[in-house]
Design goal:
The complex is a heterodimer of chains A (about 130) and B (about 240).
Chain A lengths: L6 E4 L3 H13 L5 E4 L2 H9 L5 E4 L8 H10 L8 E5 L4 H10 L3 E4 L4 H16 L1
Parallel strand pairs in A: 1-2, 1-3, 3-4, 4-5
Helix pairs in contact in A: 2-3
Chain B lengths: L1 H18 L2 H101 L5 H35 L2 H31 L33 H10 L3
Helix pairs in contact in B: 1-2, 2-3, 2-4
The chains are: A alpha/beta (about 130), B mainly alpha (about 240).
């Protein structure tokens, strides 16, 4: 796992973006970018250079699941690892995210340990 | 207007009868009767409209009933959840602060003591024996600093994570605001209908697309939600994740 990888954090709540960013920094990832919904995130992703996407689900404009679908539909982004960090906890929603091609799913409120574990798991699979 | 016409018709009728013109009198009688009937139809029409409006009012009533029966108690539960989330966050933060204050104080005291000793050493006022003991103290201080600073880091992380309440409670409160708005619209509509000043239009309820944070005791009743991360992990691994 490259600690210098560029991570895009997408959440409409700025406090949550700050929390995720700080947790990532604590885990050694300092190269982060922020967006407040799918609409602002997608151009950043399309511009290239993002190695990992951490996104919320429920956001105005464009939701996280729509963003995930757009990412998977784009040949350039199809294999981008995506971690969903959301308060959405319906079983059908989790299944929907899995079917849309999410790499990890964390429900809020979460702990630093959970975030670390899921990120490690995602990159173990990719690197291994 | 109608009275004038009726009066003219009546005068014509009297005239026709006086003349012994029965055919004309019959026609005039029919005209007068028709006028009466027209008024009756108008009245029936008015009553029908009133009935229709009342019926529309009834369906609005049942919406308000369902709101008071389900949504309002739900909203109360949700707001209670907000209280407990904010309380939890405050406690988590205060615990970390209370735990870290003495740690930082102790390090500070140690550093102050050592720094005054160090000054004496630089001023060549320290006998060799004392220098030896100071060296040990410095080594001890370094070790303790490492441990304490790790503790501080963990505490700061706890404080950081505790701020997640703002996102969750924000989403929950937004839902309650939407409900209050819906209720307000329905009330306004009800007043409009009972005031009988306008035709009834059913207030549109905005269906929430995403269920959002699971409020214990409200959203987990149907058993179709993941209550914690373990539930999510189990579900995903059952899907081959």
């Amino acid at each position: 796992m490259d600690k210098n990888m560029r991570i895009l954090v997408v959440d409409d709540f700025s406090t949550m973006r700050r929390i995720v960013k700080n947790l990532l920094r604590d885990l050694g990832f300092t190269n982060t970018v922020e967006a407040d919904d799918g609409k602002t995130a997608l151009p950043i992703l399309e511009a290239g250079g993002i190695d990992f996407l951490v996104t919320d689900w429920n956001m105005p404009g464009m939701t996280g699941i729509e963003l995930l679908q757009a990412v998977r539909a784009n040949p350039k982004l199809v294999s981008l690892p995506v971690l969903m960090v959301t308060a959405e906890a319906k079983r059908e929603q989790i299944i929907m995210a899995a079917q849309a091609g999410v790499n990890g799913y964390v429900i809020k409120p979460f702990t630093a340990a959970t975030l670390k574990e899921k990120i490690e798991k995602i990159f173990e699979r990719i690197d291994g | 207007m109608t009275n004038e016409i009726s009066l003219t018709l009546a005068k014509e009728l009297v005239f026709a009868l006086e003349q012994g013109n029965e055919a004309d009198a019959d026609v005039l009688l029919d005209k007068i009767a028709a006028q009466k009937e027209g008024q009756l139809f108008k009245e029936v029409g008015r009553l029908t409209r009133q009935l229709h409006d009342s019926m529309a009012g009834f369906s609005l009533d049942s919406k308000i009933t369902s709101m008071t029966e389900n949504d309002i108690p739900d909203a109360k539960e949700r707001l209670h959840y907000v209280i407990s989330m904010t309380e939890q966050a405050a406690n988590q933060t205060l615990n970390a602060v209370e735990e870290l204050m003495p740690v930082s104080k102790k390090l500070n005291d140690q550093a102050a003591k050592l720094s005054s000793k160090w000054d004496r050493f630089l001023d060549r006022e320290m006998p060799f024996e004392e220098f030896k003991s100071m060296s040990e103290e410095i080594a001890l201080h370094f070790n303790e600093s490492k441990e304490s600073l790790l503790q501080v880091q963990n505490g700061l992380n706890d404080i950081l994570l505790a701020q997640g309440f703002q996102d969750i409670t924000g989403q929950v409160i937004k839902r309650v605001i939407d409900l209050v708005q819906d209720l307000e619209l329905s009330m306004v509509e009800l007043i409009r209908i009972s005031g009988n000043t306008a035709t009834a239009t059913t207030a549109e309820t905005k269906e929430l697309e995403l269920p959002g944070p699971v409020v214990p005791g409200v959203d987990d009743k149907a058993g179709d939600v993941a209550k914690n991360q373990d539930d999510v992990d189990d579900l995903l691994s059952s899907l081959g994740f």
